[in-house]
Amino acid sequence: MKKLIFLAFFISLFGYSAGENKCGELEKCFSFESSVHDRDSLQRGLGIYKNYCSSCHTLRYLRWNRLQRDLDIPETVLIDDLISNENIKTSDFVTFGLPEISPIGAPDLTLRTRVRGDDWIYTYLQTFYQDTSQATGSNNLVYPGTAMAHVLIGLQGTQELDSNGKLIRLSKGALEPEEFDSAMKDLVNFLAYASEPARIERERNGIYIILFFVVFTAVMWLLYREYK
Amino acid sequence: MASKNSLMSWIDRRLPVTENLERHLTKHPVPSKVNFFYLFGALLMVVFMIQVITGIWLMMFYTNTEEGAFASVEYIMRDVEYGWLMRYMHSTGASAFFFLMYFHMFRGLLYGSYQKPKELVWLFGCFLLFLLMAEGFLGYVLPWGQMSYWAANVILSLFGAIPFIGESLQVWIQGDYVLSGATLSRFFALHVVVVPLLMIALVVFHIFALHEVGAGNPEGVDIEKYRDKTGMPLDGKPFHPYKTFGALPAIGIFFIVFFAIVYYAPTGGGYFIEKPNFEEANFLKTPEHIAPVWYYAPFYSILRAVTFGIPFLGITSKFLGFIIFAASIAILFIVPWLDRSKVQSIRYKGIFSKIAMIMFATSFITLGYLGTKPVNEIRTLIAQICTIFYFLPFILMPIYTKYEKTLEVPDRL
């Protein structure tokens, strides 16, 4: 019984959240937990990153050949379509020749999901709205006054805040709302992968390590009983 | 066998291997009946080894410069084979170290493992806690993330709060007027050489002192009183194989939990590795909320709970906070001389000792919870009350342990 109490206490430690829950203007971020085990999703996410993010944001700690290996990208596709620059080697980082410190202040995205959390990034990408008072013409609920423009406007369509502070759609984008939502999930999955490529292997193999120690404990228990 | 024995006797004449193995392992008597609280010491040894081994591997790839530190940690996480495993084992190991240490010490408080003649065992243990806290702090700076930088700033500024010598002391420790690469490289040296060496020495002292006075038990019975013909206490068993094999299943269970965290929750929900630490240190950008890792949270709470100074003595609230924070650790050192009880174990102590232990444990956990949260008025008030409750059991200990009614301790286990 005492052991159970201690176990319960230990588990309850994880129940506390590290910061406050508030998500910018929102009470709470939309909840989303990334998964790095769906390769198709990661590849689609890479596509969105390449088409919409990579002109400003780097992935300074991720190498092209790591990406190739983990996402199962054919070499020709990697070199011709993704890198498409003969001066860049496949062992280089995914920076597209952008400088280390972005002149427009766009942060490096490699570890962004680890700094902000999946929920935050996912919600941030969904909650851009028209705001003429901003230089970019758009604003964000999660990060009010963000310097980033609504670059996904072509996919999502335009949104506006109503008098209650709720988002309403003004015009359609190239994607239906569900399609856009799933595209953002792909993108966050990809960024989560980029933040920790080893996570694929880690989450896949962990169970075998734990099972090994379950067997180890059982054998050691028998040994212990002999010498009780 | 003959050749082995002659080899052993050859060695034994020159180095007393057999004698010491018998003295500390195969003939060293330990109480036959103890509970799970007595396993934390063995687990601490395991964690210490994990930290040393993974630490050496990390050291091979880590760069201790302001420019290279953060990137080298990502290099370890990505390009070094199983570097991520080494790093997560090391970071989870740090949390495990404190978790086990707190239980190990709480066991000591519950069962009087500091009482005469075990004062030195307890003192060495307290020094180990102090060194572990220093080691954890130094190590946390090394990844050179935002929280490394700003948490270190908070702690180093405490030295700056000491009247008269504070500022120069802080500059001396930092090696610079601000926390910088100079600080990082000396913290690296302290983290990987100085503190671990001291810890190893103290672990040796801790164990030798323990073997001299003998391990305790939850009953507080002196097992040395009754011995059989061979001199082995009737309520004792040789340390090896009985206790060594007894610890193995516990080590197995520990590894199950440990690797479950390493593989499936390595950041511990932001408690083992804090989110802002995935952003490189930036001295122009203070994080919104600077929170310590969970294992410092109780002490950090005590530090923050002191919102007032003593102006006419020139003591600022920050310095007073530092004093009380230091006192919260220092008071543990003198526990052997605060306890005047005739009995060792909480099982035979009176009601006041029991209330005091509950008070201490509750306030410690509450302070820990509050330490990870941003401050507001109510939380500060609760932290202040808990700080008083943290100290009261120790301050009043000489009184209640002397006068409370204790139960009769049995002769045998």
UniProtKB/TrEMBL annotation, chain B:
It is a multi-pass membrane protein. Keywords: Electron transport, Heme, Iron, Membrane, Metal-binding, Respiratory chain, Transmembrane, Transmembrane helix, Transport. InterPro entries: Cyt_b/b6_C, Cyt_b/b6_C_sf, Cyt_b/b6_N, Cytb/b6-like_sf, Cytochrome_b, Cytochrome_b_N_euk/bac, Di-haem_cyt_TM. Signal peptide: none annotated. GO terms for molecular function: metal ion binding; oxidoreductase activity; quinol-cytochrome-c reductase activity. Its cofactor is heme b; heme. Residues 26-214 form the Cytochrome b/b6 N-terminal region profile domain. GO terms for biological process: respiratory electron transport chain. It is found in: Membrane. A ubiquinone binds at H211. The keyword DNA-binding does not apply. Heme b b562 binds at H90, H191. The chain crosses the membrane at residues 36-62, 82-100, 120-141, 147-166, 187-209, 245-265, 293-313, 319-339, 351-369, 381-400. GO terms for cellular component: respiratory chain complex III. Residues 280-391 form the Cytochrome b/b6 C-terminal region profile domain. Heme b b566 binds at H104, H206. Binds 2 heme groups non-covalently. Component of the ubiquinol-cytochrome c reductase complex (complex III or cytochrome b-c1 complex), which is a respiratory chain that generates an electrochemical potential coupled to ATP synthesis. Belongs to the cytochrome b family. The main subunits of complex b-c1 are: cytochrome b, cytochrome c1 and the Rieske protein. This is Cytochrome b. It comes from SAR86 cluster bacterium.
